[in-house]
Amino acid sequence: MATLKEGDKAPDFTAKDQNGKTVSLSDYKGKNVILYFYPKDDTPGCTAESCSFRDNYQSLLSKGFEVIGVSTDDEKSHKKFETKYNLPFTLIADNDKQIVEAYGVWVEKNMYGKQYMGTARTTFIIDGNGVISHIITKVDTKDSSQQVLDLIQ
Questions:
Q1: Ranges of H-type helices in 1-143
Q2: Which of 33, 88, 96, 109 could form a disulfide with 126 if both were Cys (CB 3.0 to 4.6 A apart)?
Q3: How high is the pLDDT of residue 1?
Q4: pLDDT tens track for 113-133
Q5: Which residue numbers are catalytic?
Q6: Per-domain boundaries in the chain
Q7: What is the CATH number of domain 31-152?
Q8: pTM of this structure
């Protein structure tokens, strides 16, 4: 599994979005991308995080950023999540866990003494050349978009 750091080239990927459309990171060449990894659709923390990006979406677009969310949920789950919360951006279905593994966010977690594998909530800010400029590992779910805005000001 990769351990990425700021200054590294962001791993390219190709997967389906919530509409069944094939999307690749390389489709965004020349654009700044906020790539955020979250554990599960329609759970309290993930909903707060996604809605934060939704609420500041126009500000992020005006600063030249595209927003892409990634979780291991399937396209159908993403579509339901997008519709329920009116999310205006792409949600990638990483069913085979290739993207979370490439970005080093598929990790061992521990809840109530039980160990399991899951997605570490992480945000990558990727510049137009495909280079990671920032990595946020301590994501504030309620203010995730503000964390990004503070870094890109």
A1: 44-55, 57-62, 75-85, 98-102
A2: 33
A3: 53
A4: 889 999 999 999 999 999 999
A5: 46
A6: 31-152
A7: 3.40.30.10
A8: 0.95
